[in-house]
Predict the structure.
Amino acid sequence: MPNILTKFFMSLMGKAWAYESAEEVREAISENSFNSLADRVRTHNEGAARLTDSLAFQPGLIDLHDELHDTWHYLVALKARARRMGYRTLAEHLDAAAETTRDTLVHVATAAEATVPVPEAPVANR
């Protein structure tokens, strides 16, 4: 794996490091996830703890939906490029990721809509 200095110099040249084995890719993904785990958990738990009512969820959910929408477009573009280049298996994985992201978009949108308080129905006298 490249060190920080190597990554920096490659970025100056407009290049990125590419791993040569699936094991190296898994290791990089795991390392990135593990190294940021505590900060992400703390950040999101602290943010969630500040929510005071259902309407307070809206801005974050709307922002999340926008980020997921961008991610979906990115995955679709990558899938199309992989398909044009003949990387069928890669395109299939990207397609599955795009479909899952689309499903998540629907759930996040529905959750955002559920933040709007519903007026209580009056209780009928019997």
Observations:
- The CA atoms of residues 80 and 91 lie 7 Å apart.
- The chain has a mean pLDDT of 89.
- The radius of gyration is 21 Å.
